[in-house]
Design a protein that fits this description.
This is Heme peroxidase. One of its GO terms (biological process) is response to oxidative stress. Pfam families: An_peroxidase. Keywords: Glycoprotein, Secreted. The strands form 6 sheets. A two-stranded parallel sheet has the order 1-7. The chain is mostly helical. It has a single domain, classed as Haem peroxidase domain superfamily, animal type (Myeloperoxidase, subunit C). It has 15 helices and 12 strands.
């Protein structure tokens, strides 16, 4: 779901076997590749470009395009999750091949390697040498405002560079760094008195990793995936039988270890691009041109690739946090303190992409509509048509007006936007099945996940988590709801436990002192 601008041009080969032992593979290896109507490469590229430009741009500020069932923060949580399981710096838009080898430099597991990297021994620059086992937390410029740790050129020192791509995802990465520190601190010093200097405890570090990973995995499956796929699909993929999970996926299978299907990474999971708003309200600091009702572009349309023009006010990342731009999270996720028009809504899952994504510094010509790049990638990698996948799954294909609408990625977006689908609220049958089966399969196939190792585990079983929640219960729980069996756990609870700034009071204190008044973070 990343909109990264990095593209290394190599001759790439992708596996045709769904049982491929590598980290990428295929779900539908026997289906033929989608076939364009044009007969030569320049015409094919021109056709894809024209279709992207004319049929896949949404009208700006169209209120009917909002998905009120999907708070805007989930767009960037989904991006964070994508970066946790996939990273392919060698994919190419320039060459067409029958691939047999595509590298995934991420483990195909929900294990937060985008957070931990190779660990404090191999990547010590991400960790605090005075507080052994804790991540470094940076500060932005001359103020106390917390930011990712950065080098002298403003580049973040984190496990995945893409999690600094924009302010929203970088602030979520920061929250997850803090959440590890707070869980590890609870294990090391249960009385809450954390000294400024202490040594590394490998056992406690591993325990903190396990707790945070399971908390995160639980939220991915029980909040994120459940939110974006039909309930009937979600309940079928992972079923609890006699206290153990059984995997019910029909199309995503593996022989040796789970892999990332390109039908997922190149098509189905790229639905997240359609969620992006042109801009976002950040917080109430009117003195830095923010405030209620002020939407800051996620990417400024006048920004020139390679030039960091500070005069252009947007939420672009890869630099020090702008002054007073700490994210107010109850404007992005539904929380007890969310009021009025908040949280902001994502856009609907449909074939129209935000104008903010019209220019991406990647692919032929340097600047392109992101939709064009996604269509190109689908064609280059030989993905089957959406209609063919629907038929293989036993679904009646929805009608397509021309060949370009049958590109698997576009097909999935149109399926979601149709009345027969979910009218843009969530994924339809084809897209939802692919996404649910891959996430369910990754969890089921990982012996260290909560699904495999502790299927009856819930976050409230961890004292180190419960001690960090200001309300002593999840954000979604009512004031009188004290039964843990009825609790649901959401992304909001990761942020709450991290001590991230939730409301305007938190933001003001964080900017002024570097700490949330509710917790000393």
């Amino acid at each position: 779901m990343s909109v990264s601008s990095t593209s290394v041009l190599h001759n790439i080969l992708l596996p045709h076997s769904s049982l491929y032992q590598g980290l990428f593979g295929r779900m539908f290896r026997s289906l033929p590749a989608w076939t364009p109507t044009e007969t030569n490469e320049p015409d094919i590229i021109a056709g894809l470009q024209n279709f992207a430009n004319t049929a896949m741009s949404e009208a700006p500020d169209d209120p009917l395009g909002d998905n009120v069932n999907m708070p805007a923060g989930y767009t960037y949580f989904g991006q964070f999750v994508d970066h946790d399981i996939t990273f392919d710096p060698t994919s190419s838009l320039q060459r067409q091949n029958d691939p047999n080898k595509l590298h995934n430099f991420r483990t195909p597991r929900l294990d937060l390697d985008c957070l931990y990297g190779e660990g404090p021994s191999d990547e010590p620059f991400m960790y605090d040498e005075h507080r052994g086992g804790m991540f470094l937390i940076g500060q932005s410029g001359e103020q106390n405002e917390p930011d990712l740790p950065r080098n002298t050129q403003g580049r973040a020192l984190i496990g995945d560079m893409r999690n600094d791509e924009n302010v929203i995802v970088s602030q979520f990465q920061l929250a997850m760094l803090k959440l590890h520190n707070r869980i590890y601190g609870q294990l090391m010093f249960p009385n809450g008195n954390i000294p400024p200097n202490f040594g590394f405890d490998g056992d406690k570090f591993a325990q903190a990793q396990r707790i945070l990973r399971w908390f995160y995995q639980y939220v991915v499956w029980h909040d994120w995936v459940k939110r974006i796929v039909k309930d009937a699909i979600w309940k079928t993929v992972l079923k609890k039988v006699n206290g153990q999970y059984e995997y019910g996926g029909q199309y995503y299978n593996w022989e040796y270890q789970p892999f990332i299907p390109i039908e997922f990474s190149v098509a189905a999971y790229r639905f997240g691009h359609s969620l992006v708003r042109p801009g976002y309200q950040v917080n109430l600091n009117t003195d830095v041109d923010l405030g209620f009702g002020v939407e800051i572009p996620i990417f400024h349309p006048d920004r020139v690739p390679g030039q960091d023009d500070l005069a252009l006010h947007d939420l672009k990342g890869f630099k020090n946090l702008r002054k007073k731009h700490t994210i107010q999270w109850d404007w992005y996720f539904k929380m007890q303190s969310s009021q009025g028009p908040f949280p902001q809504a994502s856009r609907k899952i449909d074939p129209q992409l935000s104008s903010a994504l019209f220019k991406v510094t990647e692919g032929p010509g340097g600047l392109n509509h992101l939709a064009f790049l996604n269509l190109m990638r689908s064609w280059r990698m030989g993905l089957p048509s959406g209609s063919a996948v629907a038929q293989a799954m036993g679904f009646t294909p929805h009608p397509v007006a021309n060949a370009h609408e049958d590109v698997l990625w576009h097909y999935i977006l149109k399926e979601a936007s149709s009345p027969k689908g979910q009218s843009g609220k969530m994924l339809g049958d084809v897209g939802g099945t692919i996404v649910a089966e891959v996430f369910g399969g990754l969890l089921y196939g990982d012996n260290s996940s909560f699904v495999s190792a502790a299927p009856n585990w819930t976050p409230n079983q961890e004292p180190a988590i419960m001690a960090l929640l200001p309300r002593g219960k999840p954000e979604s729980a009512g004031d009188n709801d004290n039964d843990p069996a009825k609790w649901t756990w959401e992304v909001a609870d990761l942020l709450r436990a991290a001590g991230a700034p939730i409301n305007d009071t938190d933001v003001a204190s964080t900017i002024a002192t570097g700490a949330n008044p509710v917790v000393n973070s």
